[in-house]
Amino acid sequence: MTFKEDLKARLQGSRNTPYMLFITRYDRNSSTQYIFCESTEDIIFYRIALQRGHPKVNFSFISCNGKGGVLQVRGKLRQAKYDHLRISYIVDADHDRYSVGPREWGGDIYATDFYSVEAYLVCPQVFISCLQQHSGLQDDDPTLRLARNWYAALDNAFVDAMREPMSIAIQIRRQFGPDAVHFDGVALHNFLRIPDIQTVSTIACLSEAIIKLAGKDDNREAIRQEAKHLEASFAHSDPREWIRGKFSAWWFVETFNLISRKLKAEYEDQNRQKINCGLNLSPKAFIPVLAHHAEVPKSLAEFFAKRLALAAAA
């Protein structure tokens, strides 16, 4: 067996695991809601969000091997006789709205409003809530307003830095299919730096790296030309729709830690006490630490309110 064949077999096996877990866990006589998610990190966010809105409902989450894994399990289960009103599937929207156009998902599938689940946590409200929890700053502290302004400035700089590379990634996916670009091997710290509270610096060209990653060097000029039109359309959309979620998470972590260090080194709170933020945020802790600071997405609440009502009425 070749390496590729072995990898394919392992992937297939891992994608069968959620299906087997469901079979052993499913209870026909219970009211449990079964939910398939892309990863264990996603489960952390959705478990907190759904338990907050429906504390009396028993949710059973099963992690799959990415979006393809979720949809593969759905394909298998839809062919069997289960109570499908108690089975739901959650996937990231990714670049679908830009690369393949609006998708008509089934009534049992929830797709994120933005690129991925991380985007729900990349917002000023979550930043301020987390900063207050770990620094003790009060709502009316002038220093908190400073921190909010620094966050906004770095947010704008980051969005500007991501316009071209993300438009190129989307254009490649439009021309050559959604799987033409995979970001798993792209570490954003190799391309961007955040040296101060106003600047996001480029140290290497992410756009060129994406073109090479996709193996489209020969199509470079045509891709760049078409991507310019796409980039212009970003002005009318939320950047969290087109910036990869894990890239946004990296930026948030760097920004949070930078601002925390600056507050500690140079500022006092309104009671003239030294500011000491006890949290050094890390990418691995991004969702576990921040999930409880986020509001429940309105679309998620509406989706499961409908699903629960249908199940109760059946």
Description:
The structure is a single chain. The protein is α/β, with parallel strands linked by helices. It folds into two domains: about 5-115 and about 295-314, Rossmann fold, CATH 3.40.50; about 120-295, no CATH class. Helix content is about 55%, strand content about 10%. It contains eleven helices and six strands. The chain has helices at about 5-25, 40-55, 65-75, 95-100, 125-135, 140-175, 205-215, 220-235, 245-265, 285-290, 300-314, and strands at about 35, 60-65, 85-90, 110, 190-195, 200. Helix 2 (about 40-55) links the parallel strand 1 (about 35) and strand 2. Helix 5 (about 125-135) crosses helix 6 and helix 6 (about 140-175) packs across helix 8. The longest helix has about 35 residues, at about 140-175. The relative contact order is 0.14. The model has no long low-confidence stretch (mean pLDDT about 90).
Provide the spatial order of strands within the biggest beta sheet: 2-1-3-4
Total domains, how many?
2
Number of strands: 6
Largest sheet: 4 strands, parallel
Q: Estimate the helix proportion, in percent.
A: 40-55%
Overall spatial form? flat
Cα gyration radius (Å): 22 Å
Which consecutive residue ranges, at least 5 long each, have pLDDT under 50?
none
| Average pLDDT reading | 92
Helix and strand composition category: alpha/beta
* Content of β-strand: 5-15%
Order of helical and strand elements: HEHEHEHEHHEEHHHHH
What is the straight-line distance between the termini?
Answer: 49 Å
Number of helices: 11
